[in-house]
């Protein structure tokens, strides 16, 4: 561990997961392995800059707060979307200036506001009158960014029930209240929902933002900040390309003046594809029908929904398992069910799979496990969370 950080191993051309598994000799270990490809994160940033050149990415730290990931993005010049004092502290610790941080939690504890004030993190979202009064008392010099509701019709995790005010009525009222309290409204924000699948959602929201900018101008506000939130896919670059095209068209139509700074809050976009989780089968069980014929094979892994696979419960993720057997395609495929290691019957990873007949000690891999996984993992029932190894291309 150099400089207090885990060691990074380097590779040429492409990261070979099988070779990593062989070198780690996972059959001897009880702990699952999280393989993190930092170069994947960097490639995603380059793709973002290529397809969305006007929009500055502010990485959503909550998605994966791994210090190695945060440090890399900080060094590459990304901004950061923080939701708490500790997330702000983490980002500031890597030398990120406060103007590259947005405190994008509309409902912040007073102590967190005071920390932001102390460190001059002035950009923050607000979506109700109680928070406006709170800011007036505890951080009157902050930049208020009014968050309004504008949800996609299809999203992995909708957020509108919890955050965002009505764009047509409440947002204007909040701006009027802020004006009466002599507070600064510098922009607006929205979030169409995490894992958005509706291309039109962004245009619909950006159009609402334009109307609020017009209202702000009537109040004498010189608004110059637009936050288009997150929702960008992390494992489907083709879909991201279509979303980027839609966003670019909408921004050019509604905000052609580049005086307006536009940011976004991508989380899973950067890290979902960066991590592959490798688990070991530590037990198996065969279920037979009344005639004695094998019906289902159940496998028990060394990680589950209280560890990395919490994404199944909290992020509505559907995971895909892949085995590492040679010539397995020629073997018969059996109906399979995968469980986590805990004693909880909710600890089910996947069912109705079809896998070859595997044995105790065999390994299963799960790609796209970098988003909303490790930050929420816990050692429930005494089972260890996965160990993470870091890799980067030369």
* Contiguous runs where pLDDT drops below 50 for at least 5 residues: none
Shape: elongated
Report how far the terminal alpha carbons are from each other: 19 Å
Major sheet characteristics: 9 strands, mixed
Number of helical segments with 4 or more residues: 11
Strand content: 25-35%
Structural class: alpha/beta
Chart the SSEs and their pairings.
Blueprint: E1 8-11, H1 17-24, E2 33-37, H2 38-51, E3 55-60, H3 67-75, E4 79-82, H4 85-92, E5 101-103, H5 110-118, E6 123-126, H6 129-138, E7 143-147, E8 155-157, H7 170-180, E9 184-189, E10 194-196, H8 200-218, E11 225-227, H9 237-254, E12 261-264, H10 268-271, E13 275-288, E14 294-301, H11 310-314, E15 321-323, E16 334-339, E17 348-355, E18 363-366, E19 387-393
Parallel strand pairs: 1-19, 2-19, 3-4, 3-12, 4-5, 6-7, 7-9, 9-11, 11-12, 14-16
Antiparallel strand pairs: 2-13, 8-10, 13-14, 13-18, 15-18, 16-17
How would you portray this structure in words?
This protein has helices at 17-24, 38-51, 67-75, 85-92, 110-118, 129-138, 170-180, 200-218, 237-254, 268-271, 310-314; strands spanning 8-11, 33-37, 55-60, 79-82, 101-103, 123-126, 143-147, 155-157, 184-189, 194-196, 225-227, 261-264, 275-288, 294-301, 321-323, 334-339, 348-355, 363-366, 387-393. The chain is an alpha/beta fold and 394 residues long. 29% of the residues lie in helices and 25% in strands. The two termini are 19 Å apart. Strands 1, 2, 13, 14, 15, 16, 17, 18 and 19 form a nine-stranded mixed sheet that branches. Helix 2 crosses helix 3 (67-75) and helix 8 packs parallel to helix 9. It contains eleven helices and 19 strands. It has two domains: 8-37 and 274-393, Beta Barrel (Lyase, Ornithine Decarboxylase, Chain A, domain 1); 38-271, Alanine racemase (TIM Barrel, Alpha-Beta Barrel), CATH 3.20.20.10.
């Amino acid at each position: 561990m150099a400089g207090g950080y885990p060691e990074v191993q380097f590779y040429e051309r492409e990261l070979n997961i099988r070779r990593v598994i062989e070198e780690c000799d996972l059959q001897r270990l009880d702990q699952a392995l999280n393989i993190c490809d930092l170069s994947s994160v960097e490639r995603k940033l380059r793709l973002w800059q290529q397809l969305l050149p006007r929009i500055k990415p502010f990485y959503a730290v909550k998605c994966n707060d791994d210090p190695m990931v945060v440090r890399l993005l900080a060094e590459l010049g990304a901004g950061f979307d923080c939701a708490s004092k500790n997330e702000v502290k983490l980002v500031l610790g890597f030398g990120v200036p406060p103007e590259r941080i947005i405190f994008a939690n509309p409902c912040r504890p007073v102590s967190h506001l005071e920390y932001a004030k102390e460190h001059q993190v002035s950009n923050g979202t607000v979506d109700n009158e109680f928070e406006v009064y709170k800011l007036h008392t505890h951080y009157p010099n902050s930049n208020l960014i009014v968050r309004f509701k504008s949800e996609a019709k299809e999203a992995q995790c909708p957020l509108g029930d919890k955050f965002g005010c009505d764009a047509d009525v409440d947002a204007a009222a909040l701006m009027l209240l802020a004006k009466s309290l002599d507070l600064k409204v510098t922009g607006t924000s929205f979030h169409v929902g995490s894992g958005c699948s509706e291309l039109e959602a962004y245009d619909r929201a950006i159009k609402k933002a334009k109307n609020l900018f017009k209202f702000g101008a009537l109040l004498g506000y010189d608004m110059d900040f637009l936050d288009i939130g997150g929702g960008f896919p992390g494992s489907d670059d083709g879909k991201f390309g279509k979303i980027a095209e839609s966003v670019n068209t909408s921004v050019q139509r509604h905000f052609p003046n580049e005086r307006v700074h536009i940011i976004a809050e991508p989380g899973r976009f950067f890290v979902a594809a960066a991590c592959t989780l490798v688990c070991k089968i530590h037990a198996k069980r065969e279920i037979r029908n009344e005639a004695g014929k094998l019906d289902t094979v159940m496998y028990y892994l060394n990680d589950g929904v209280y560890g990395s696979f919490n994404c199944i419960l909290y992020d509505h993720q559907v995971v895909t398992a892949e085995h590492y057997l040679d010539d397995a395609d020629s073997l018969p495929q059996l109906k399979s069910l995968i469980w986590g290691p805990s004693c909880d019957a909710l600890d089910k990873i996947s069912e109705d799979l079809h896998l070859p007949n595997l044995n105790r000690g065999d390994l299963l891999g799960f790609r796209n496990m970098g988003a909303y996984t490790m930050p929420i993992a816990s050692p429930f029932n005494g089972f260890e969370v996965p160990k993470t190894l870091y890799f980067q291309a030369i």
